[in-house]
Design goal:
The strands form 3 sheets. The chain has an 8-stranded mixed sheet. The chain has a 5-stranded mixed sheet with strand order 13-12-14-15-16. A 3-stranded antiparallel sheet has the order 2-4-3. The two termini are 55 Å apart. The longest helix is centred in the first third of the chain and has 20 residues. It contains 18 helices and 16 strands. The chain is 41% helix and 18% strand. Strand 15 and strand 16 form a beta hairpin. The protein is of the alpha+beta class and 450 residues long.
């Protein structure tokens, strides 16, 4: 049988692993600078922990794990005969791979809230799984890099997370724009259009604007039984100016007497003005009134980060979720968090050629193998280099020198070292810089940097 990969998964070469580690190291460093503590949770959770937290579309994308053994033995025969999918799932599957890092984090907080110091700030970098249709930048197994704060309603947390985003992408040299909105504004819009009972349908459709355009959104709203009259009242959403504060002023007028909508405008206005006062360039922040983010658990600010020079969709996102732990029986723990999309950030950096040379894993020295006692001396010298943190290896066989050179070139090794009888006798080392093509003989002390 010909081997193949499962759809939506990838193998990573040495260079890819090194470059991913480069991104992760920068993110981890910034998480620590901003006071976030690392956390890891299991790769799978109880299915009941995950379902009902991501909306109808999200629930369909959860990878369920079949129960061990004869998972059909406990199945209701009538449900089986009728192929009642929704009822069968809970009977044959008790576990599922995690869909994101936020819900498992909320579960952790609910289980440990008595031991935590609030506000509690955590960072987490782990893989997640979604049964999505694979395409460029969208995989079924991918990493999320999250930073969350729970136990604080202060809008300064939103301001801090904007700073975290901007500093991290500046360190990666990726030019980005942060799109912002507020779920209370979306609730206010639903109230303004008389479709409060259709809030979820409204936000799910609106969240697809980038993919299906205004015409597609309008069509989906009609399919979700939202009237043409309501859609007409919302038509201004599709023709916003470039001035965020001007758009918020326009909303204030439309939201006269609309308490939740005005609250959302006030919150977003605060985050924008405080970010500006800290020196953030307004070109880096966009008030995107059509930004909805499809997840049901957001209650306030929502963020989405887009690369300026590459058509990639979002490379980061997040928002405030003040009620998430309530579903686990723990009330009054507000939270907010953001996520960095490692895989998409990688693709953007690759396309823009932003990876520095040190982001690639390269061996410094390959020792040629001439056979005999010289190999033992070479191994002793290799041990000394490794003790100094310098990468080195010995070609394992006494092969023709051309074959050893070819090996070094294909692996991108920087230097080829020759340690023969003459070098051992004179306490010297001969090496060739394979990039410059220069050959040198130096003393052993000079070579080791003693």
């Amino acid at each position: 049988m010909k081997p193949s990969l499962a759809k939506g998964t990838r193998d990573f070469t040495a260079q890819e692993v090194s470059r991913r580690k480069y991104i992760i190291n920068i993110l981890q460093n910034n998480f620590e600078l901003f006071g976030f503590q690392p956390l890891e949770t299991p790769s799978f959770e109880n299915l009941s922990t995950l379902t009902g937290k991501y909306g109808e579309e999200g629930d369909r994308l959860i990878f369920k794990i079949l129960n061990s053994g004869d998972y059909t033995s406990e199945v209701n025969q009538e449900d089986w005969d009728n192929k009642n999918h929704q009822k069968l799932v809970s009977q044959i599957s008790e576990k599922a791979l995690r869909y994101d890092l936020t819900v498992p984090f909320a579960r952790f907080v609910a289980m440990n809230h008595g031991k935590l110091t609030f506000p509690f700030k955590r960072s987490q970098i782990q893989p997640v799984w979604r049964a999505d249709r694979p395409q460029k930048g969208r995989y079924r197994e991918f990493y999320q890099c999250d930073a969350d704060v729970v136990g604080s309603e202060s809008l300064l947390q939103e301001v801090e997370l904007v700073q975290l985003y901007l500093k991290s992408f500046a360190d990666l040299k990726v030019p980005v724009t942060i799109h912002m909105n507020n779920r209370k504004i979306l609730s206010g819009l639903a109230e303004y259009a008389g479709i409060t009972d259709k809030l979820i349908d409204f936000t799910v459709a609106l969240d697809k604007l980038d993919k299906i355009g205004k015409e597609g959104v309008v069509k989906e709203l009609l399919e979700r039984e939202i009237s043409q009259e309501s859609i007409d009242k919302l038509d201004f959403l599709f023709s916003q100016s470039d001035d965020a504060l001007e758009n918020l002023l326009q909303l204030k007028e439309k939201f006269a007497g609309n308490e939740i909508g005005l609250k959302g405008v006030e919150e977003l206005e605060y985050v924008l003005t405080q970010s500006l006062s800290l020196g953030v360039d307004m070109q880096n922040l966009v008030f995107n009134i059509t930004l909805a983010r499809g997840l049901d658990y957001y209650t306030g600010a929502i963020f989405e980060v887009k690369a300026d020079e590459v058509a990639m969709g979002s490379i980061g996102g997040g928002g405030r979720y003040d009620n998430l732990t309530e579903v686990f029986g723990v009330k009054n723990i507000p939270g907010i968090g953001i996520s960095f999309g490692l895989d998409r950030i990688y693709l953007v950096m690759e396309e823009l050629n932003l990876f520095p040379e040190e982001a690639s894993s390269k061996i410094e020295y390959l020792f040629a193998n001439a056979g005999g006692e010289e190999t033992i001396e070479a191994l002793k010298l290799i041990m000394q280099l490794r003790a100094k943190g310098i990468s080195a290896e010995l070609y394992p066989e006494n092969a023709k020198i051309n074959k050893q050179f070819t090996y070094a070139e294909k692996k991108g090794i920087k230097n080829m070292v020759f340690l023969g009888e003459e070098e051992i006798k004179n306490n010297t080392v001969t090496y060739k810089d394979l990039e410059a093509g220069e050959k040198k003989t130096v003393s052993l002390e000079e070579f080791l940097g003693v």
